[in-house]
Amino acid sequence: MKEVNKVSGAETTVIAGAGIAGVHAAESLRKEGYQGRIVLLDSDSQMPYDRPPLSKEWITGETDEASILLRDPAFYERLDVDLQLGVEVTNIDPFRKTIDTKDGHSYEWEKLMLATGSQLRTLSIGGDDLQGIFYLRRMADATAINHHMEGVKEAVIIGAGFIGAELAASLNQLGIKVTIVERSSYPMEAIVGRQASAYFLDLHRRNGVDVITEDSVRQFNGETNVEEAVTAAGRRIPCQAVIIGVGVSPNTAVSHPQLQTDRGYAVNEFGETSVPDIYAAGDCTSWPYNGVPIHVEHWDHAVNHAKTVAKNMVHPQSDPYTYTPYFWSNQYSNRFQYFGHAKEWSKTIIRGSTESHAFTVFYLDDQDVVKAAFIANQPKNALPVRRMIQQQNAISPEALADESIALKKIQRMQVKI
């Protein structure tokens, strides 16, 4: 029989997941005046930490564990948050309003937030049990990679998405010879289009990274440690370390037949799931954006979504989530930003030039409305671009391409449809 964890007479909110969304949700509950008990559960045994630095500053040794903690340990005591680490949630009972954990405990709740984040996509490749082959998701992974990289001269990265690209830049900075193996012809083309994708390809090659496209790794060879990666095309790549970065998927392992999922827990604009009093926030969700359900895995979204959903948990249906998706990536000395969400577009307009390494690519629909934009080393464009996407007005493509016309002015221009 499970031990039920409850405080007599106390209203309880349980948050499953102590990542960026879960921690900000707990903080926001208190800011919104919630006086009940908050239980914050996480399967990781580390104090809650920030993940983006793991592929950058952590790998290069520019930061330490203390500096990437989301909050100092005293924060949870100060806000009276019951943080339970190393706890894996296994089951939800929406009728009894309990959540069960692998260690045999059961927590009662009046309201529950699922902030379970995402989980790694993995590959099955011959020889992948050799030492020196890693995935990067948790601090423990990053720590193991750091320890292994001492003495490594050659590394292979599988996947040229943003995490793979950031890792390549970080390892390159450490003086390691890096080879990226990517299945597609152009990395991240589905997200940023051909122009920006070709720019990324050239950027890494100019910095000494060997980027192999239209190929995949089929075999790892070595005695006990990986010594080479063999591709489908027959390439043999010497390496003493491999990092596999082929993306993530929403973590919806905590489920119930009444809990609807669609590329994540399906929530409305208030963060409510299909089950009363169960909410969800962050990477594990699918949420309405311009009337269409979307799923994104962005740090900025996780923070803002968690704050908004927490407010709605305290003040039901008081604050609809109207967020413009945003993410960034730092590679070498470059700062890249992406605003909006566009799975497809009718035309792209480039402002600036890839040759100058300072440009903005706009993704327009067939009525010349800007759906998304990719910004390279032009941080001043961020605010007007965000507003342009939020307003959803038709914009002159010619004006977008003309750098003599300020974006603030273009933002106020409307084209009759």
UniProtKB/TrEMBL annotation:
<dbReference type="InterPro" id="IPR023753">
    <property type="entry name" value="FAD/NAD-binding_dom"/>
</dbReference>
<dbReference type="InterPro" id="IPR028202">
    <property type="entry name" value="Reductase_C"/>
</dbReference>
<dbReference type="InterPro" id="IPR016156">
    <property type="entry name" value="FAD/NAD-linked_Rdtase_dimer_sf"/>
</dbReference>
<feature type="domain" description="FAD/NAD(P)-binding">
    <location>
        <begin position="13"/>
        <end position="306"/>
    </location>
</feature>
<dbReference type="GO" id="GO:0016651">
    <property type="term" value="F:oxidoreductase activity, acting on NAD(P)H"/>
</dbReference>
<keyword id="KW-0274">FAD</keyword>
<dbReference type="Pfam" id="PF14759">
    <property type="entry name" value="Reductase_C"/>
</dbReference>
<dbReference type="InterPro" id="IPR036188">
    <property type="entry name" value="FAD/NAD-bd_sf"/>
</dbReference>
<protein>
    <submittedName>
        <fullName>Ferredoxin reductase</fullName>
    </submittedName>
</protein>
<dbReference type="GO" id="GO:0005737">
    <property type="term" value="C:cytoplasm"/>
</dbReference>
<keyword id="KW-0285">Flavoprotein</keyword>
<dbReference type="Pfam" id="PF07992">
    <property type="entry name" value="Pyr_redox_2"/>
</dbReference>
<keyword id="KW-0560">Oxidoreductase</keyword>
<dbReference type="InterPro" id="IPR050446">
    <property type="entry name" value="FAD-oxidoreductase/Apoptosis"/>
</dbReference>
<feature type="domain" description="Reductase C-terminal">
    <location>
        <begin position="326"/>
        <end position="410"/>
    </location>
</feature>
